[in-house]
Amino acid sequence: MTEVLRQLPPQLLVVGAPTVAAVVLALAIRRLRRRRPPAEAWRGALLDGALVGSCLVVLFATLSSRGGGRSVDLRPLHELGPVLGGRAGRERTWWAVANLALFAPLGALLPLRLRALDGWMRTLAACAALAALVEGLQFALGIGRTAAVDDVLVNATGGLLGYAGLAAARGLWRRRRPTHARGR
User: Fold this and answer.
1) Domain finish residue from 64, 99, 114
2) Do both 82 and 99 map to the same domain?
3) What tens digit of pLDDT does each residue of 143-152 get?
4) Rounded-to-integer distance, Cα 145 and Cα 71, Å
């Protein structure tokens, strides 16, 4: 895991944190000026900031250069098969865990922000499309990374796990709210 963290450029924190903070502040001010209730304005701004932060992490983690050149691997389960079969080494296993974790926040945040993406299949499709876009950019930019089908599969699964976490949190929230607060 430390190797995965070492691969992230330091600019992620230097550029990302102030960018997210500026987005949150600007959106909260905009919503407050439009006479939104303060709690609603800040909640929406924080949600949007979390989404921007998640996108920045994805972009920095996947589009940072590793030299030059282009390669593509269109063989499904080529790298993922050994991980699933328990035959992969530590590095390959961490690759799978990191790719799952990379898209999990998007799987939880996208349905909260865009109601049209609220649903298992819609979230899966959106995360798969975003992962395919990232892999396409890796190939098109020639940044020394391999555009791979396995990355799309694992990233989309990570998004689905994020949605599962959101669904579980919603279920807990509904059970914990008093009956009179639900309007019954």
Assistant:
1) 64
2) yes
3) 888 888 999 9
4) 7
Q: Are residues 3 and 41 both part of a single domain?
A: yes
Rounded Cα distance, 48 and 9, in Å: 23
Residues 6+ apart with CB under 8 A from 84: 77
Same domain, 35 and 103: no
Percent helix, percent strand, percent coil in the chain, to nearest 5? 75, 5, 15
135-174 burial: b if 16+ Cβ within 10 Å, else e? beebbeeebebbbbbbbbbbbbbbbbbbbeebbeeeeeee
Q: Structure pTM?
A: 0.79
> pLDDT tens, 17-59?
888 888 889 989 999 999 999 998 998 899 888 988 888 888 8
Last residue of a domain, one of 46, 64, 82: 64
Give the domain extent around 161.
67-184
Amino acid at 133: L
Q: How many domains does the chain have?
A: 2
Q: Where are the alpha helices (DSSP H) in the chain?
A: 2-7, 11-33, 38-63, 80-84, 90-113, 120-141, 149-176
In 16-150, which ranges are E strands?
69-73, 143-148
Token pair for 16: 């990302």
Q: Inter-axis angle of helices 38-63 and 90-113, to 10 degrees?
A: 150
- Between CA 116 and CA 104 the distance in angstroms is 18
